[in-house]
TrEMBL record:
CDD domains: CsoR-like_DUF156. This is Metal-sensitive transcriptional regulator. It comes from Leifsonia kafniensis. It holds the Pfam family Trns_repr_metal. The lineage of its organism: Bacteria, Bacillati, Actinomycetota, Actinomycetes, Micrococcales. Transmembrane segments: none annotated. It comes from the Bacteria.
C-alpha cells in the first residue's frame, strides 16, 4: 500500500489537532480572499505583498505542524516496526521536507 493511499483505519498523527488545523485553514482561506479583494480594489502593491507574505507564513506554520505530527506518529510508529514500511515512511518524510525547503 502506498503511503498516500492508507485506509481510514489508520489514525493520522494530526487527528488530535484536527480542529486546530481546520480553524487555522479557515483563517488562511479568509486571508486569501482578502488578498483577492485587495487586487480587485487595486490596492497598493506593497500592501498586497505584505499580505501574501503573511499568508505564506501561515501556510508554513500549518505545514510544519503537520510534518511534526507525521514524524512523531506515522514515522515513529513505522520505525518501531522496522522493515520496508519504516524505510518508506522515512523517505516520504525526507521528500516532504525537501518540498517544504524548496517552497
Amino acid at each position: 500500500m502506498s503511503p498516500s493511499s492508507e485506509t481510514s483505519t489508520h489514525a493520522h498523527g494530526y487527528i488530535s489537532d484536527k480542529d486546530k488545523y481546520l480553524k487555522r485553514m479557515g483563517r488562511i482561506e479568509g486571508q486569501a480572499r482578502g488578498i483577492s479583494k485587495m487586487i480587485d480594489e487595486e490596492k497598493y502593491c506593497i500592501d498586497i505583498l505584505t499580505q501574501i507574505s503573511a499568508l505564506t507564513s501561515a501556510l508554513q506554520v500549518v505545514a510544519l505542524g503537520l510534518l511534526d505530527d507525521h514524524l512523531k506518529h506515522c514515522v515513529l510508529d513505522a520505525a518501531k516496526l522496522g522493515g520496508d514500511d519504516a524505510a518508506a515512511k522515512i523517505k516520504e518524510a525526507s521528500d516532504a521536507i525537501s518540498r517544504l525547503v524548496r517552497s
